[in-house]
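Listing S7. Sequence submitted for prediction.
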Amino acid sequence: MLNEHMAIAGLGDQLTFSDAPGAPVLTVVGMARSAGDSADAWVSPAQLTALAKPGTVPDQQMLYRFTSAATDQQVAADRDELTASVPAGSLTSADSYLTIKLAADKTSATFVPFLVSFGVLGLCMSVLIIGVVVSGAVSSASRRIGILKAVGFTPGQVVRAYVGLALAPSVVGTLLGLILGNLAAIPILNRADEAQVAGSTSIAPWLDVVVALVALAAVAGAALLPALRAGRLRTTQALTVGRTPSNGRGRTARQVLGRLPLHRTAILGLAGPFARPGRSAAMVAAVVLGAIGVTFGAGLTISLNAVQDGMNRKSPGAVQVDPVPPPAITMPGMTHKPDIANMPAIEALITAQPGTRRFFSFGHTSVSVVGRAGETSVLAYQGDYSWGAYQMVSGRWFRGPGEVVVPSGFLTTTGTHVGDTITLANDNHRAQVRIVGEAFSVQESGMVILTDEASLNGLNAKVMPESIEIDIDLTPGTNQQAYLGSLGEALTPYGVPPVPGYTGLNGMVVSMDALALMLTLMLVAVAGLGVLNTVLLDTRERVHDLGVFKALGMSPRQTVAMVLWSVSGIGLVAGLIGVPIGIVLHDYVVPAMGTAAGTRMPHADIAVYQPAVLVPLLLGGLVIAVVGALLPAGWAARTSTAGALRAE
């Protein structure tokens, strides 16, 4: 079974271990993931013994659970006790699960800021819609409230009746929401599992219970204010009040709008919201929340895609070659054993290959940084690496020996800044280098140094041959597949087949994209339903006015236009309010996600709201409002004149 990060073979392929006794051939029967990358492949114990060279004993990897292992100090104490209980020299190395857990927790933590943001927006939207529905029920049933009070209902009983009116369907809705939410979470949790997110990738039963209780409490709270208003209504007032707003409401707005060069239908529609300012304000709030969600979701998706592009800069070549394969691997037609000495010949073949524009190589080694305990990883570059720059957070890419680029994690851990000089050490040798840039990278928790290999001269720090990677840039117009085939034939004697450059999507980014899309669509749907409910309630209350308009000659098409005009102004205003708030939210959440992952975010990944993006977003509020009002507009157009005039 191979670690899925290994690219040397696929499922069902066969690998020949020529250096092992009998040159056994093993078949790849599965692909696995290791959170700690503790192994590249797994075989049975008997097979491991058979692969060992005569006279050698394979190392054993033991996994221990300790009673007290919550801190590094506790793990270290347990490890010391274990070391003392076995023969001297038996324990060659040890790793703590806390190190792996810390890296995995950073992955999980990046989800928190934007999930909380969407959650708060969704909760606010739900509370608002519930308030609008109950308020509408109170407004449209004032006569019924008067009758209830006339037959002996106390104000408290009226309040409880209307809160219960909201809770009854909410129980059904909550149960359906829990079922659909759990089902919708399945593909997202699968993505999270692929991204190796820490913790359980299933929904705990207690969480469903808490969500249900919070949802019903929110419903009760949102319904309480309009229910209290119903309880305070006097009996005579409730029995005599009509549903149509008083003639004074909205008159000034109609007079002002009447001076504009607009069709009468548009003027009536635009003036309509001023007749019910409270209800119109609720509709504005619903569309604002929808516009915030769309703006935030769109910006988040663009930023995540930019982050993915930045992460792919680690290996920017259109074609990649690992010039020193593992020594146990034998490829058909291979005549040269894996050796670092083959590098010049391989590079000469790449240079001579038609379609090669430029290339560079980099490999892994480790050195010490003076003032910091332990070793730090180094990626040492050779060749024309000017085009292989990582996405930069600040500063610039290194241009030669003596200059280094480091991620944000390194600067934070060491307390250094761009422009500082640090000292590298190895085997009692030292070399000073200057930090010239801050790179966007989270590999090895940001504790890695990127530099020219010549910066390590005199340190006796050798690059691990099997870690070397050659990245090749192709001349414009070169067919990648044809290039791969031609170069593959040339490199066959060395057993180093070229592979396409990695441009895939990171599992975590895919999970976030999917979540952002799903949550944005949910917010838009709820905002649209809020508009639909408000417009439908307003239209039904003004049905007598519609009958008058139709009797005076208003056509069904003009009726639809009037209803849509009544929400268009609200949609535009809501868009102008919601988009800036969504941008502010995005500009706060994205850096917070980067901080959770242990890196600062490049400015280009945050400043994503270009004019081509902003214009559609500003019109998003209008679209939400118009789409939400289509059904009530259609109902108003189909209502007969006689039926509308007979309505109360």
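Caption to Listing S7: primary sequence and predicted structure tokens for the chain studied. The chain has a mean pLDDT of 83. The chain has 21 helices and 14 strands.
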